[in-house]
Amino acid sequence: MSPLRWFADAMDIIKKDWRLLATLNALFFCVLIIGAAIALISPGLHLSMINFIGADSIASSAGISSNSNTLNTAMLTFCSSFQYLLMITVPSIVLPIWGPIVGAAKFFLWGVTYVAPLRGGITLGKLVPQYLLMIVLGEAYVIAIFACTRQLKVAVSSSGFEFGQILALYLKSVAENMKLLLIVIILLAAASLYQALIVPALTGIL
User: Fold this and answer.
1) Cα-atom radius of gyration of the chain, to the nearest Å?
2) Angle between helices 43-53 and 18-41 (to 10 degrees)
3) What is the pLDDT of residues 8-19, one digit of tens each?
4) Which of 146, 119, 137 has its CA nearest to residue 59?
């Protein structure tokens, strides 16, 4: 199957279940806002999280040095994001509830650490360029979680069937949802280029 056909199939899946994807977007970005609100209420938690991660940006939290050149920054950002994507999707093949749980934890930590500028924490000038990065990366992760949730729906809705039927339906769902990963990878690549090309320029200005 050609990448264009794969991409078209993935878009068809999104169109078919767009309400579920919209609900997941609202839910997980609400989790991010809740994390930011907790950081405002408890600045100590915000500072502790920054110190624990040892980073002042999403990129550096993944071990990406600000001294890296553009190509290295893009590659390292993509590899780090892709590793997290695997962390969401691979265990979810066996345990589909895993994806939403791990995703919620990621969005909550982002909210606590990278949304609210607080005294002694990350400055607004460093945070502003991270916001678009969070949106693009966040959407990539939400689509991955969307795939896991669709698998969970199949597993729950077919619970009254025989084991062989359940397994066949579930594996068909997994194969179908794998097509969504092409869109996720495109978003991860876009986020990597943004991190490498745009964030340094915006940080310098702000």
Assistant:
1) 18
2) 110
3) 999 999 999 999
4) 137
Q: Whole-prediction pTM value? A: 0.87
SS3 sequence, the chain? CCHHHHHHHHHHHHHHCHHHHHHHHHHHHHHHHHHHHHHHHCHHHHHHHHHHHCCCCHHHHCCCCCCCCHHHHHHHHHHHHHHHHHHHHHHHHHCCCHHHHHHHHHHHHHHHHHCCCCCCCCCHHHHHHHHHHHHHHHHHHHHHHHHHHHHHHHHHHCCCCCHHHHHHHHHHHHHHHCCHHHHHHHHHHHHHHHHHHHHHHHHHHC
pLDDT for residue 62 is more than 60: no
What pLDDT digit, counting tens, does each position of 158-180 carry?
777 888 888 888 898 898 889 99
Tokens 């999403």, located at residue: 58
Could you tell me the two tokens for 70?
């553009």
Q: How far apart are CA 158 and CA 148, in angstroms?
A: 16
CB of 181 within 8 A of CB of 12? no
- Domain coordinates in residue numbering, the chain: 3-205
